[in-house]
Specification:
mainly beta, ten-stranded mixed β-sheet, seven-stranded antiparallel β-sheet, 12% helix
Length: 328
């Protein structure tokens, strides 16, 4: 039996969309996905989206300004507890798919695959990519692209990409049994040629300000193919996953290092954090919040934590793949 998104979901998607004729020069599903990751850093817009996670539904207003490959944005919840987030992400961090902790969770920023290295899909076949035709979301025409997981180590992804810009008007995650884990859908979206500075300014004193910059306290990692970064690396990662980014910064009064690795299979990503810890600071076990799983264990006097929008088995597999080479 083929594992991944059940046939019934594929059939339903086909019924709700109008198939387009196959024309010479039509973009492949991989081309559409690559356009999507580019559009998230090149398009400015404002709109409202609905974020569904399990039994929770949130409506969020967003103003997004693309700037030099990075972006600034202001997000404001329209349902539940009022939250306002003003976020700035530089070009390098945006390309690496940086996420800020304050922007995650219910009422936070959308979980776009920002900077997803779609080219990695060429090196494995863990997803079956399908063009499901055209549909409409928020009154705009979009192309439905399905990335159906072939195994249980990743989720299936479905997007409806604006035909003019490839912005994801709809984004969905499904587990290996076809159950919807997360849906993000715009109810209205307006492209902007310019974004007024006032539109990006906080309107409340309790607004959360998040700045993600690669040069803030970070140093360029010294990476060795054999020993990794400062002796930390990976061996026997889950199929399809590879390390795509590494950074290191000093934290605390004693200036200990916090190492951060990003691993990806082209669509899904897992972050691994490594920091010195001892005693009660140590935690071992697993956690879950919707589609996001986390796992932690101790290695050589360090707390090692893996977290990502992937199944628990994948997070555990990444965590088990972390290796330390003493003396490096």
């Amino acid at each position: 039996m083929r594992r991944g998104l059940p046939f019934v979901l594929v059939a339903a998607a086909a019924l709700c969309c109008v198939p387009l004729p196959v024309l010479a020069g039509d973009q492949s599903p991989a081309d559409w996905l690559q356009r999507m990751t580019s559009s998230l850093h090149s398009e400015s817009y404002q709109g409202t989206f609905v974020l569904q996670r399990e039994d929770r539904l949130d409506a969020i207003r967003v103003v997004h300004a693309a700037e030099n490959g990075g972006y600034r944005e202001r997000l404001e919840t329209l349902t539940g507890t009022h939250r306002e987030i003003v976020r700035s992400v530089d070009r390098l961090s945006a390309l690496k798919g940086a996420r800020a902790a304050a922007g995650e969770g219910a009422g936070g920023a959308p979980h776009w695959p920002a900077g997803a290295p779609v080219f990695l899909l060429e090196h494995h076949d863990q997803y079956a990519l399908e063009d499901m035709g055209v549909d409409r979301v928020a009154g705009l025409e979009c192309r439905m692209i399905l990335a159906r997981a072939r195994d249980m180590l990743r989720y299936s992804h479905r997007y409806c990409l604006h035909t003019a810009t490839a912005l994801p008007l709809l984004s969905e995650l499904y587990d290996g049994h076809g159950a919807l884990l997360e849906r993000l859908a715009f109810t209205d979206l307006e492209r902007l040629d310019e974004v007024a500075e006032t539109a990006l300014e906080a309107t409340r004193e309790d607004a959360e300000h998040v700045e993600v910059r690669a040069d803030h306290g970070h140093k360029k990692p010294d990476w060795d193919e054999q020993t990794g970064m400062d002796g930390w690396g990976f061996a026997n990662l889950p199929d399809g996953f590879t390390a795509i980014a590494a950074s290191e910064r000093r934290v605390g009064d004693d200036q200990d290092s916090l190492r951060h690795f990003v691993l990806s299979d082209g669509l899904a990503s897992v972050s691994v954090y490594i920091e010195k810890a001892s005693g009660e600071q140590m935690f071992e076990g697993t956690t879950r919040a919707g589609a996001t799983h986390g796992a932690a264990r101790s290695i050589a006097g360090h707390q090692v934590t893996a977290v990502g929008d992937v199944p628990q088995a994948t997070v555990r597999g990444v965590l088990d793949a972390v290796v330390h080479h003493p003396g490096n």
